[in-house]
Amino acid sequence: MRVAFLTPEFVTEYQDGGGLGNYLDTMTRHLAAQGHEVELFVPSEGKPHVFSHGAVRVERVSWRTVPFITRSAVRVVGLARLGPVKAALTWYGHASALAQAMERRHQDAPFDIVQSADYRAA
């Protein structure tokens, strides 16, 4: 079975992994050990990058793939010092980029199950 996870955090992105990151690390390793094909999508401020974390394919998704207008709005709101609005727009950008990346992979090889974190708009 092909399984995808969309998440705002994972152990490869943070030193301590965070609660959600640690949970997903455990779950993805367990599913892969049971013979499932597991992929994880996580937002990145840097360049997009795909790598293996054990038997799990991890795709760092750059939010630079979202429309220019959204990225511009984040910059303008940041300059206006509207922190909560900037955070919401950034989360929207990350969620949009994760969805696009997952849909692109789904077109190549369909997923049987997709789990998206209910955290930071993922």
What is the mean predicted local confidence, pLDDT?
83
Extended strand count: 5
* Proportion of strand residues: 15-25%
Order of helices and strands: EHEEEHHE
Task: Characterize the biggest β-sheet.
Answer: 5 strands, mixed
For the largest sheet, list the strands in their spatial order.
3-4-2-1-5
Question: What helical percentage do the residues reach?
Answer: 40-55%
Low-confidence stretches: none
Rg over CA atoms: 15 Å
Q: How many helices does DSSP assign?
A: 3
Q: Which structural class matches the secondary elements?
A: alpha/beta
Q: Tell me, what's the shape?
A: globular
Cα end-to-end separation: 23 Å
Report what the structure shows:
The protein is an alpha/beta fold. It has three helices and five strands. It has helices spanning 18-33, 68-79, 83-108; strands at residues 2-6, 37-44, 49-53, 56-62, 113-116. Strands 3-4-2-1-5 form a five-stranded mixed sheet. Helix 2 runs antiparallel to helix 3 (83-108). It is globular and about 50 Å long. The two termini are 23 Å apart.
Task: Name a few traits of the molecule.
122 residues; alpha/beta; five-stranded mixed β-sheet; 5 strands; globular
Would you spell out the secondary-structure blueprint of this structure?
Blueprint (H helix, E strand, L loop, with lengths): L1 E5 L11 H16 L3 E8 L4 E5 L2 E7 L5 H12 L3 H26 L4 E4 L6
Parallel strand pairs: 1-2, 1-5, 2-4
Antiparallel strand pairs: 3-4
